[in-house]
Amino acid sequence: MNFKRIHRLWKQQGLKVPVKKAKKRRLGNSEGGVIRRSAEYPNHVWSVDFIFDRTEDGRSLKILSLIDEFTRECIALEVGRKFTGDDLVALLSDLFVSRGIPSFIRSDNGPEFISKAVRSFLDFIEVGTSYIEPGSPWQNGYVESFHSCHGALKRDQ
What we know:
The chain is α/β, with parallel strands linked by helices. The chain has one domain (about 20-150): Ribonuclease H-like superfamily/Ribonuclease H (Nucleotidyltransferase, domain 5, 2-Layer Sandwich). Helices cover about 25% and strands about 20% of the residues. It has helices spanning about 5-10, 85-100, 115-125, 140-150; strands at about 45-55, 60-70, 75-80, 105, 130. The chain has a five-stranded mixed sheet, sandwiched between helices. Helix 2 runs parallel beside helix 3 (about 115-125). The chain is elongated and about 75 Å long. Mean pLDDT is about 80; it is low at about 25-30 and about 150-155. It holds the Pfam family rve. This is Integrase core domain protein.
């Protein structure tokens, strides 16, 4: 039986036929989203995000991934039990010395990324922040795509 036959039978029996809903298309129109501020050259926009995993004994791991949106190169992949804002500042300062300073860093609104230490550090060296809207991972699409391409890395929500 196909959909059309079932639809016709429902109508014949006087049943209410469910209306097919159109799928909403999300464009990520936030100020910090990929569509509004796309990378135009290397070191223009870096994307950073965390993913979580567990070891065999059940202890959690936190994996920080940082990519250059223009070149799609993975700049850093740090693994640890926990990361604080100070840890992120230390990592970014080392990367800025070796790779140069980006114009913007795109991230979600996680506690590590919005900490006073990180915000004051980025303001001091004049790196713009591009925060995505909460619950909108498609606005940070390059790093999310990087996570999905690497099957060993999985995201716990």
